[in-house]
Amino acid sequence: MNTLDLLLHPVRLRIVNAMSGGRSRTTTELCARLPDVPKTTVYRHVGLLAEGGVLEVAGEQRVRGAVERHYRLRHDRTRIDAGMAATMTTDDHRRGFAASMAALLAEFNAYLDRDDADPAADLVGYRQAVLWLDEKEAAEMVEELTAVLAARFANRPGPDRRPRLMSLIMFPAEEE
Q: Contact, 34 vs 18, CB < 8 A?
């Protein structure tokens, strides 16, 4: 399975999100992190991600006679770069968008279902805006946003840090 097919699936996207920040997790830990996904499904998708090189084994240990693997994310395999995006068909884009939205909705519901969910205090936002931009302005904005976000991508888990899922979506809103 190629990287594009691996990443264009809502459960696999959620697993990739759960593995971010340089963390190492077992499949059992991922099952606990994704309680709404059947355990057999999590195991199957972890296997596919490992087979496809998106996850790698960070360590193994024996637990009650079975081998428990700790996985970590290979960040170089989690990005759909401009070259890969250029090869995507319109159906690939539909599938990718649907997978992203399904994963986003599942993550948001999981957040709201937590006892400590506090959208106002947690700065939750889901706003939409129409920006009137020519091609040069759109490219400049993407470059500026990329620079702002790149400064934070290197952050690792810490005592005062929480993972925050952010989705940026941009496309022409109407035909010219």
A: yes
Chain centroid to Cα 75, Å, comes to: 11
- Amino acid identity of 170? M
At 143-154, the pLDDT tens digits run: 999 999 988 988
Stretches where the chain sits below pLDDT 70 are: 176
For the question of whether the overall pTM of this predicted structure is more than 0.85, the answer is no
Instruction: For residue 143, count CB atoms less than 10 angstroms from its CB and return exposed for 0-12, middle for 13-18, buried for 19 or more.
Output: exposed
Sign of CA dihedral 124, 130, 133, 135: positive
Pairing relation of β-strands 55-63 and 66-73?
antiparallel
Q: Is 54 helix (H, G, I), strand (E, B) or coil?
A: coil
CA angle 107, 13, 20 (to 5 degrees): 85
